[in-house]
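Subject — a protein and its fold
Fields — amino acid sequence, structure tokens
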Amino acid sequence: MRPFFFRLFAAVALCAPTACATTAASQAEVVKLEAEVRTLRASQATLVERLERLENRDAVSRARNVAAPVSTPAALIPKSDEDTGNEALGLAPAELAVVRLKPKKEPAPRIATAVPVVEPDPDQMEMFISPAEGSSGGASTASQARSDGVPDKDPAILEAEYEHAVSLLRTGNVEGGVDQLTRFAGENPRHPRADNALYFTGLGQMGLQDPASAAKTFERLIKTYPAGDAILDGMLRLAECRVRLNQAVDARALYTRVVTQFPGTAAATQAEQRLAALSP
């Protein structure tokens, strides 16, 4: 038995260095393979970058070819009879000459633009021109429409005057705004903003604690512009002036008129509420 054990131990001792040598060789191969893999990856990245450059260059060249005008090959251009005859005689083909066409320096034909002027009939003009207030019905021209002889102002100027007067009220210059609005309504009774000018005039007079003058202004508004857009607010403000002047009966009459003549409106709702407040 002992000799067997000695041989076994000897075999084990001999195999140990062999195993160590095998492990070292395997590690060296792994390191080598890793280096090769890194090299292949670097080479692959270089190839990919080069491929991208080539694709970009190819795309640019395609875009240029599409943008450039397509030229017809000379072989596809049909030959004229003269070129065919020259080739049959052995002569060189004729060169094409560029001819620039110049426009003719002739004036354009005249177009008849003269229109005969026909004066309107005075009798027909009276049918379309309404006489101004206070003037006689026999006025036949627009120059006689104004009794004072002053020409009408530019609508833009009138609009600017109205806006300026209203801005005076809003910025605190109530007296100046009232004066300008009163003048505007008096000088331009047919202007679309004339009823609004009277309404804001009455508001300014109420702000100046002058309900009597404000009541007269609102009465003028209701009488002169019964179809204006400020009629409802003017009636409510007139009733308010009546209340301030201790004229409760007239105020109730105005509120009742608003409710009966304009039912369903916001002004009618306010009039009902104020009527309830005035009830004894």
Notes: The chain is about 65% helix and 0% strand. The radius of gyration is 53 Å.
